[in-house]
Amino acid sequence: MLRQLVDLFKLRIGIMMSVTALAGYAVTPGRELSLAEVTLLLVLVVLASASAGAFNQYAERDLDSVMPRTQNRPFVTGVIKHHSIWLFIIAAILVASVVTAWIVFNSMVAIYLFLGAFFYGVVYTLWLKRRSSINIIIGGVSGSFAVLAGAAAASPDLNSSSILLAMVLFLWTPPHFWSLAIALHKDYALAKVPMLPVVIGDEKAAIVILIHTLMLVTVSILPFFYEMGVVYLICALSGGAYFIIKSIQLVINTNKKSAMSCFFASLIQLTMVLLGSVLNGFT
Q1: Hey, which of 135, 196, 240, 246 would disulfide with 217, CB 3.0 to 4.6 Å?
Q2: Count of helices and strands (H, E) across the chain
Q3: Quick check: pTM over 0.70?
Q4: DSSP code at position 67
């Protein structure tokens, strides 16, 4: 059951969001949080993300039952009953995380946590995913709000590095997800979800991925020219170069293998940017 709950609440994504929040805090001058406060901040980000992830699975049970990749999710298999009580549980988790953030930190942390969950759960899941090929572009805003939540915990007045880091998350999500969508093209086509590769074809989508990757890497380097140091620059350049290489290879040879390679390269790129941010902030 523990594994099913981890899947239901998409805790892997939540943990990644908490790391982005930590990076946002690290690059923002202001209030110095205690270890307990930092831990609480990360837990609240995970909880807000978990509420959005569970709502996504609750709302998309029909899609998940069609796509082979998601047919083992708990609401589909029936291991966890698809019942309206889950809407109450999901709302309670989100409200608890937002209210706690408001009390312990400040109103902006609470607002960013709410907006992150709202954009993923409502804007992306309910409004855009089944209707528009720009679904993941707008949906990617949810990751940016995790960065801003972490930054606001240090200071409600955002600095240039925290804003640029939020932009990195915004630009990172589309090429990351479109790479996966190329690899799982048949799944999304079967479910009639208008992901970009399904709408314009894998080859054209690969070119768009490369363009987005170039923009992403460019923006990821910009914090060096503000408050960030050489360690951050090295991390951003190394991760970015690897992602660009894999994106070029995807354009040259567009297939499932190269798409998954590009997908994993995006994870490495983001990890390096976040690592550089944390190292720069705490050293």
Answers
A1: 240
A2: 15, 0
A3: yes
A4: S
